[in-house]
Design a protein that fits this description.
The two termini are 25 Å apart. The protein is mainly alpha-helical and 247 residues long. Helix 4 packs antiparallel against helix 6 and helix 4 packs parallel to helix 7.
C-alpha cells in the first residue's frame, strides 16, 4: 500500500497540472486574504472571529481546486490510456479505487497546506503594517477546519472521477452542478419552503465545512453529509470501475 501511494505521489509530481493547481491556489489565497483584510474596517479586523474567517474564506477556492484535482487523479488514467498498466500493478480494482481516494484526500490536504502558507504570509505582512495583533488560536482553529474541508473535497473529487471516468464529463458536469444546477435546486426548494433541505445537497454540504458565516448545517453535520456523498460516489466508482472492460 505504501509503495502504491508513493507511486501516486510520483505521478502527481511529474504532472504540470499539479504545479499549475498549486500556483493558482497560492495566487487565489493571496488575493482573497488581501481583499478580506483590505475590505474590512479597522474595528472589523480586531474582532475575535476575523482571523478565523480569514483562513476559511481562502479555503473555499482551495476546496474547489482540490475537488477538480481529485477528479483528474482518476480520469487522467483513462484519458491518457495508462489505466491498463496501472491495473497490471494493482489488479484488484477495489484497491485501485481505494488508493485513488486516499491520494485525493492527501492531495487536498497538501493543497490546503500551500494555501495556508500563502494566507499566513499575506496576513502577517499586512496585519503587521496596520498594527493588528495576530490571534494564533483563531488562525489554527480555522486552519484545522479548512484542512478537513479541503481533504474531503479531494476525496469527493476522486470518487466522482472514479464513477464517471470521463475527464471532460466529470469536470464540466461538476462545475455545472455547483454553479448552475444546485443553485436552481436551492431556489426551487425555497419556493416550497424547504430551505433546510438545500443544506444537504453536495455542494452546500461541502461548502458548509469551510463556511465562516455559520449558515446551513453545523460543522459536524456538514462533514457527515460530505462523507455520505463521498461514500455514494465511491460505491458508484467501485461498480463502474469493476465492470469496465480495460483492453
Amino acid at each position: 500500500m505504501t509503495r502504491l501511494l508513493a507511486a501516486e505521489a510520483l505521478k502527481l509530481r511529474t504532472l504540470r497540472s499539479t504545479w499549475g493547481f498549486g500556483l493558482v491556489a497560492v495566487l487565489l489565497a493571496g488575493l482573497v486574504t488581501a481583499g478580506s483584510i483590505g475590505g474590512a474596517g479597522q474595528q472589523d479586523r480586531l474582532e475575535a472571529e476575523f482571523q478565523f474567517q480569514l483562513v476559511l474564506d481562502a479555503a473555499f477556492p482551495a476546496a474547489i481546486l482540490a475537488l477538480l484535482m481529485g477528479m483528474i487523479l482518476v480520469t487522467n488514467e483513462f484519458r491518457h490510456g495508462t489505466i491498463a498498466r496501472t491495473l497490471l500493478a494493482v489488479p484488484r480494482r477495489a484497491r485501485f479505487v481505494g488508493i485513488k481516494l486516499l491520494t485525493g484526500a492527501a492531495t487536498g490536504a497538501a493543497l490546503m497546506l500551500v494555501t495556508l502558507v500563502a494566507v499566513a504570509s499575506t496576513a502577517v505582512i499586512w496585519l503587521g503594517l496596520i498594527d493588528v495583533p495576530l490571534e494564533l488560536g483563531d488562525g489554527l482553529h480555522g486552519a484545522g477546519r479548512a484542512f478537513v474541508g479541503v481533504a474531503l473535497a479531494g476525496l469527493l473529487g476522486a470518487a466522482i472521477g472514479g464513477a464517471v471516468h470521463s475527464q471532460v464529463g466529470s469536470l464540466v458536469g461538476t462545475l455545472v452542478w455547483i454553479f448552475v444546477a444546485e443553485p436552481i435546486c436551492w431556489a426551487l426548494l425555497g419556493l416550497l419552503d424547504l430551505d433546510g433541505v438545500a443544506s444537504y445537497l453536495p455542494a452546500a454540504a461541502l461548502g458548509g465545512v469551510v463556511d465562516s458565516s455559520g449558515e446551513g448545517l453545523p460543522f459536524a453535520g456538514s462533514v457527515g453529509m460530505t462523507l455520505a456523498w463521498a461514500v455514494v460516489a465511491a460505491a458508484l466508482a467501485l461498480v463502474r470501475t469493476g465492470r469496465r472492460d480495460i483492453t
